[in-house]
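Hey, can you fold this one?
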Amino acid sequence: MSSQDHPVSSLQDKIRSSLPYTLAVAIVGFISLWVRTLPSDTVFLPGGVVKFATNDAWYHMRTLYVLLENYPNRMFYNPMTNYPYGSYIHFGPLFDQMIAITSFVLGMGNPSPQLVNTIAAYFPAVLGALTVIPVYYIGKYLGGRKTGLLAAILIAFAPGHFLQRSLIGFTDHHVAESLFSTFFMMFFMLALISAKEKKLRFEDVFNKNFRVLKEPLLYSVIAGVMYSAYQLSWPGGSLFLLITLIYAIFQYIIDNFRNESSDYLGFTGIATFLVSVVLIFPFVHPDMGFSLYYYSWFHVVTALGTLAGFAALSFLEREFKRKQIKAYYFPLLILGAGILGLVIIKFASPSLYSLIIHAPTTVFMIQKGGPSTIGEASSMFYQGGVFTLEKAFANFTVTGFFASLLGMFVLAANLFRKPKPQEVLVLIWSFLILFAIYGQNRFAYYYSINVSLLGAYLGGLLLDIVKWNELDQKFKNTVKSPADIPDAFKFVKIQQVLAVLAIVVLLVYPAYGSAMFQAKGSNDPNEPWLEATLWLRSNTPDPGMDFNAIYEAPKDGELFDYPDTAYGVMSWWDYGHYIEFFGHRMPNANPFQAGVGGRRVSIEEENQPGAASFFTAQSEEEGNAVLEAIDPRPDKAGARYIMSDARMATDIFGAMPAWTLDTEGYYQTIWTGRGYETIPSTRYFNSMEARLHIFDANGMKHYRMVHETEAYQTNEVVYKQVYNLVFGGNIPVIHTGYVKIFEYVKGANITGTASPNETVKISATILTGQGRTFEYTQSTTADSQGRYEFTVPYSTEGPIEGETQFDTAPVGPYVVSYGNTTKEVRVSEEAVLNGEEIKV
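Sure. Predicted structure:
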């Protein structure tokens, strides 16, 4: 009697056999969540403070608060950053919407800020833990339940980018990308398997044969939903369109050579991407044209193009079989059709053609110039032009990384036998993500999925060799109650024990050990930046913008209509979100790399005004010109305040000239008793960054320090030692404020007369809010008529209402000296701000 005669009994058997694995996956999921919440004490601080990790997490909270304030409307354009242009937000809307909806539900329609912060903090950890589900099912259909369970365990402990981006407090969309892209691959795989097993043909569609269509259609629809969720988490989700299309080409070719129908593949692709087109279309912003980084026509066109690709390949494959054309012509025809399609697109839409041609290079090729200094955009395998596996080992462990390569090799070998669609899909998927991390290591959080699957696939093959399935069946036949478990162990063979030990030692334990070591909290922003930005918010003029309002983007080619009270804050792009979120002020540059300026392709380009060109400017006059050029309006400067920290002046300074493509001469190599050492050079000390941070803006006419934070031990003292020893300087070798805030002012003009051609000096002792003093000095030479002039940035009379409430100022009047003469000069704040003349 067949099992079909007892369908209920068969179903019960399936449930009974899958129950242990279901429970095991659930346990693995909870363990994964536990790992990701280990650093909770660094997120939930005393007093109800929730501290998120990294700058992008704070920007997500910014967009989330605006969303909650204006629900269901979300900010698309933000004029509060990249002043004076604003930035279009390239973050997908789904991540913020999921947190907002969860907050509304748990908060009974009126969530408190504390509840919102708590939900947002836990969200990445929950999404990271949920990833074990699709990983288990992909592994299951790749190599059986044992493979799926092992894959779930490996992704639960996967270290590196995947762990870091799914830790509690790392409230960023990256983990949503991983989760939804993996769910997409899972359901796409299930649709392929189901359609192939049911021998689905396009005739079944025309004949409405729902018995055959029902299950593949359901999986395809869900795959389309998951792809859309992935795309709406990150606009760059078109990466998986490319992966799917390349897989399809290989699968069509394989099927054609094997004389098998590919209708199952065409049906799945067409149904999946038809759903995605429908779901993504409402989020398109037509004014974005064709853009990869914002929701534009590009995302609809590429999804439609992928759909059309599946349809065209299916048509060609059926025609080949109908006309009995030799199989080796098929790939040649695909290549020709692809080239013809690109030619047509080039003439029909040059902008779309350019994007299609250049988009893959931004993913798969090593970045150069300024982008190469972005941590997550640098290559996984090249550091400083030298090949290294250090990052790969840190992200995937040594054995995990090499297991992934070996797993791909085994899957590739299967192509010459009778490859299953899921094997080809995982192979192409894994290879392309490996290629992607060659270009940018940010995709390591994708490749962790592949490492887990490929490592588990190898582990499953090892268990097959030691006949694990036979042992599994014997356990099922023997164990009817817990009391039967001890007797069942007599079936275990030594080779099976050794195989399990090998898997644990080589795959599981290294991942677990790395995860435990790396499951640590973040210190972003550090205390000095938090203090400095909060000081900025409380002690500088209100720029006149509604912080939580939703603003419409200006028309193409026009500037946003800022109020006259608006101004920018210049700092390196890393800190832009902190300035906006905590300071409620408008940074010129931000972590979207907007406002950086500089050059992108060639040193022959004009050096565009921005953070890079300002901080590397070689004189105060050149720096002023950059600030004035940032805002195209002739009566407005691009920034009123400049914020610098010790890292900008030392550790990360090299990134600034990298964005200008003019990197020579900032450092030099000298011989010391310990060998050759690289030290900062004259060009470095002439830069605006050094003039401001290392020299406290001493002698500058239009820049005054208005606040500094507590001093930390940094490399600042090393740079000062070099300046004194090598360049004959005489500056105090001490640690000063970690973050310093300067104000760009017109400066008061102090004029007087002395003997013709006489040297005249002006000085003042400056006292900072930290109790530190330093000398501000200038010198000039009187002209042939004896006239001299100084432009000074500090007020000796203190702040005035409505302007900067500085805590760094002269302790007394300026002292003008020449020959045996000294004169004291007092300068009002109005004179500094308005550029007034003061006669001595």
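The chain has 32 helices and 21 strands. Let me know if you want another pass with a different chain boundary.
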